[in-house]
Amino acid sequence: MAAAVDNPLPIVVLISGRGSNLQSIIDSVAAGELPVEIRAVISNRPDVPGLQHASQAGIPTRVIDNSHYPDRAAFDAALQAAIDDYRPELVVLAGFMRILTSAFVRHYRGRMLNIHPSLLPEFPGLNTHQRVLDAGREETGATIHFVTEEIDGGPPILQARVPVLAGDDADSLAARVLEQEHRMYPVVIRWYAEGRVQLDTEGRVRLDDVPLERPRLQDSGAGAPC
Ligand code: GAR
Question: Which of 14, 15, 16, 20 has most ligand 1 atoms within 8 Å of CB, for mutation?
Answer without folding.
Answer: 20
